[in-house]
Design goal:
By secondary structure, the protein is of the alpha+beta class. It is 51% helix and 19% strand. It is built from 8 helices and 8 strands; from the N terminus they run H-H-H-E-H-E-E-E-E-E-E-H-H-E-H-H. The chain has a 5-stranded antiparallel beta sheet with strand order 3-2-7-1-8, covered by helices on one side. It has a 3-stranded antiparallel beta sheet with strand order 4-5-6, with helices on one face. Helix 2 crosses helix 4.
Length: 251
């Protein structure tokens, strides 16, 4: 009887130890699992954060400039300097027309052409690595702005602070208008500085130039068109039917 109790006790202890070691073996891989992120994803995230920081700094600078203009205008109004006030307001209006993209601009700069690559893929590469995405275009635009570009267009569409660039399959929507590749980005500014910014070792252009087609050309004269609300409402292939027009007249 005593032998049976000892045997049962040993079996219980052995079962407990076996269960413990099995639990440890099951849980250990879960604790050591790591999430791997590609280098491109890290660079994209870093560039986006840097872009947001630059946007915040630009907004702070414009707020300070606006507050200074308000103070100057208040002083002119108090001193009844109407002619100077009108001249100042005209200069301010012209300034805001330029930065808001409402006027066509001409000047030296660069043209950046981005397109899908047609080279053979290496065995470790994915097809998405040689295709241009909207994030690629946005990061190049951010690098141009950071390098001091004064005006930018993308496939003939003026890029302003409210512009949207989004992917839609094999096309990219620019200000709501679908555009096919290749993407031609034109920027007015110092050609040497802008070109260097596009091909600098830490730039996004240097990162993608071996994956997709990426060409930078310095130009003496670039025309950047004015921004148009028609970019959001342009319809090239549809019109109102005659029946609909007739119904509208009877209302």
């Amino acid at each position: 009887m005593k032998m049976k109790k000892t045997t049962l006790l040993m079996l219980c202890i052995l079962s407990i130890l076996t269960g413990f070691f099995l639990a440890v073996q099951i849980q250990t891989p879960g604790k050591s699992m790591k999430l791997y992120v590609s280098s491109k994803a890290l660079i994209d995230a870093k560039a986006k954060v840097a872009g947001e920081l630059r946007n915040g700094e630009n907004l702070r600078q414009r707020i300070a400039e606006t507050e200074e203009r308000i103070q100057e205008t208040t002083i002119m109004m108090e001193n009844d300097q109407s002619e100077e006030l009108l001249a100042s307001n005209a200069m301010i209006a012209e300034y805001y027309r330029h930065i808001s993209g409402m006027t066509e601009l001409v000047g030296p700069g660069v043209e950046v052409v981005i397109d899908d690559s047609n080279r053979d893929l290496s065995i470790w590469e994915d097809v998405n690595d040689v295709i241009v995405h909207d994030s690629d275009v946005l990061l190049v635009l951010n690098d141009l702005l950071a390098a001091g570009a004064e005006a930018i267009s993308l496939n003939g569409h003026r890029i302003v602070h409210t512009s949207a660039v989004s992917c839609g399959g094999y096309i990219v929507h620019v200000n709501g208008v679908p555009e096919a590749k290749p993407f031609r980005i034109r920027a007015i500014g110092d050609p040497a500085v802008l070109s260097a910014a596009m091909l600098a070792p830490n730039s996004y252009g240097a990162f993608i130039k071996d994956s997709v087609k990426f060409q930078v050309t310095a130009l003496d004269e670039i025309v950047i068109p004015a921004y148009s609300d028609g970019d959001l409402t342009r319809h090239s292939y549809m019109t109102v039917s005659k029946e609909a027009e007739g119904e509208g007249e009877t209302l």
